[in-house]
Amino acid sequence: MLEKLMLAQAQECFFEKVIAGGKPPALCSKVARQVGVFYEEAYAALCAPPLSQHFDRTWVSHVQLKAAQFYADACYRFSLDLHQQEEIAQEIARLKIGMNALADAKKAAKGVAAPLLDSVNKLESNMKTNLDRAMKENNSVYLMRVPEAGTLGALPAASLVKSTSLAEVLDASNERLFSSLVPDGSMKALSKYTEMVDDIIRTQAEKLQQSSEITRVRLKEMDLPDSILSLEGNVSIPADLKEDVEAVQISGGPAGLEAELQQLRDLNRVNQELLVQTEEMLQKEASEDAQFRTQFGSRWTRPQSSTLTKNIQDRLNLFAGNLKKAAASDALIERDVKESYPLMSILDRRPIESALPSISRPIMSLDGNEDAIVGALKQSLRQLESLGAQRAGLEDHLKEMKRKDDILPKLMAGVGAHDDLFRKEIAKYDPICAEIADNIVAQEQLLLQIQEQNAQFAAVFNLDDYKVARERCYKQIAAAVAKYQAIKKNMNDGLNFYVSLQDATGKIQQQCSDFIMTRNIQCREMIEDVQRKLAGFNLSSSSHNTNTPRSSSVPPDQHSPSPPPHAPHAQSSYGAPPGGDPRPVYSQPESRPPYSQPYPTYGAPPQQPPYGAAHPGQYQQHPQQHQPPPGHDYGQPAYPGWRGPYYNGQQPQPQQPGPYPQAPYSAPGAYPHHQSNYYRPQ
Question: Which of 90, 168, 328, 601 shows a CA-CA span of 20 to 30 A to 490?
Answer without folding.
Answer: 601
